[in-house]
Write a structure and sequence with these properties.
With 419 residues, the protein is mostly helical. The protein has helices at residues 3-6, 10-31, 37-44, 48-51, 53-69, 78-98, 102-114, 118-129, 135-164, 166-187, 199-212, 214-244, 249-254, 259-276, 278-296, 303-331, 336-385, 398-409. It is 79% helix and 0% strand. The longest helix is centred in the C-terminal third of the chain and has 50 residues, at 336-385. It is globular, with a radius of gyration of 21 Å.
Length: 419
């Protein structure tokens, strides 16, 4: 990659914008099916409950793609990998549009998820194209694109399906994804790995990096705990809105619009993280999540409190994600894709665990139990964030942990940067 492309500047800003659009389009593809389930079920002559498995299949495929494909970003040319996966997403969308039965739609949805972790590859590439500077700002911009895509996908899919049918949604998204793949192939520069590395080695090194470097463990575990807090909120929120406030599904869906607040704030959170540094930035963001839970506590008695707390919690959660990625990417430039895979794998597991825990808390103690569960996870995240960078099990210092991480990551490439 040429030095001019690596320096932040006008060209770098344009590439960052292209990568933000890439995050928006590819993230939107994962959530397209949610508003289409009833119409698709009627068309394929199956119960709606049968197609209820479609979003789950896509999410399971997406998690598998994060774990299995994102580490490849440190082993192959990222431009080629991102372009190929984007093109593969277009093929999977076409398969969804052509699916003759519910079974084949589920299979196509699973495959769509597997090839869709492009945003998790885009963020490390955007940082590299920005010359490794202003990491938080760059990650925040790319994440804003992702959030806009997630937010817009449901509205766009529902509106288009009402006019042209559910298959038209997949066809239109397929066409947009083909255009995106063409733009990426034309405008993205080559982005080879820092040093020769086999995919199998890159994949196997992810858990070893997590085990060897206490800084990675601290950031990733804290991020996963914020994910637990986030998951503990959104599932019980539906129960609260339906059972306590007597809202219908359309009104419940409007609460998803708070993601727009996260999209607006993400670039600002990135700039703040760059200014404060990793640990201090994460502390501020987790503090915003804690403030959100404090405001949400009386949410069962006042809708205004519920809305304000939802915005605070959502903004704090997404801002914390920017902070975690900023801190991880600053650790090892040549390992950013593997660090991102490690972070998002535990992040998704945390959200899933939080959703389960929040449901149990609702059943046991109602909204106060939910708020207590979320606040406890948030407090644990804050505690982990301020743990010293030591490895208690092996009794190693921070330096020892770093040396161990270098051993599992592979030999040193040029300039003393581990692979």
């Amino acid at each position: 990659m040429s030095e001019s492309l690596m320096r932040p500047g006008r060209g770098g800003a344009r590439l960052t914008a292209l990568l933000a659009v890439t995050s928006a389009v590819t993230a939107a593809n994962v959530y397209l099916s949610q508003p289409l389930l009833a119409e698709a079920a009627a068309s394929l002559r199956v119960p709606v409950g049968t197609l209820g498995a479609l979003p789950t299949a896509t999410q399971v495929g997406f998690a598998a793609g994060v774990a299995l494909l994102v580490p490849a970003g440190d082993a192959v040319d990222r431009r080629r990998l991102i372009t190929v996966l984007t093109a593969a997403s277009a093929v999977a969308l076409a398969a969804c549009a052509l699916a003759p039965t519910a079974f084949w739609l589920l299979v196509a949805g699973l495959l769509l998820g597997v090839v869709s972790p492009v945003p998790q590859l885009v963020a490390p590439l955007a940082v590299a194209l920005a010359g490794g500077e202003r990491i938080g700002r760059t990650v925040g911009t790319v994440q804003a694109g992702l959030l806009v895509g997630v937010l817009a996908s449901r509205t766009y899919a529902g509106a288009l399906a009402s006019v042209a049918g559910w298959r038209a949604v997949f066809w239109c998204s397929c066409a947009a994804t083909v255009l995106l793949a063409s733009a990426l192939r034309r405008h993205l520069p080559a982005a080879p790995p820092a040093a020769p590395l086999r995919y199998r080695t890159a994949l196997a090194s992810v858990p070893k990096i997590f085990a060897a470097d206490p800084r990675v463990r601290r950031i990733v575990v804290a991020g996963a705990l914020v994910g637990v807090s986030f998951g503990a909120f959104w599932t019980p929120l539906t129960f609260l809105l339906v059972q306590h406030y007597r809202f219908g599904s359309a009104t419940v869906g409007l609460f998803g619009l708070v993601a727009a607040a996260g999209a607006v704030v993400s670039p600002l959170a990135g700039r703040l993280t760059d200014r404060l540094g990793g640990r201090a930035g994460q502390t501020v963001m987790i503090g915003a999540v804690a403030a959100g839970w404090a405001v949400l506590l009386p949410g069962g008695t006042g809708l205004g409190w519920l809305i304000a707390g939802t915005v605070l919690l959502d903004v704090g959660t997404w801002s914390n994600q920017v902070g975690c990625q900023q801190a991880l990417f600053a650790l090892r430039p040549a390992m950013r894709s593997r660090l991102n895979a490690c972070y998002f794998t535990l992040r998704f597991l945390g959200i899933a665990a939080g959703s389960f825990a929040g449901t149990l808390a609702w059943q046991a103690a109602g909204w106060f139990g939910v708020a207590g569960t979320g606040a406890a996870a948030c407090g644990a995240a804050l505690l982990v964030t301020h743990l010293p960078d030591r490895d208690p099990a092996a009794g190693r210092s921070r330096t020892g942990g770093i040396r161990a991480a270098r051993r599992v990551a592979g030999p040193v490439a040029g300039g003393g940067v581990p692979r």
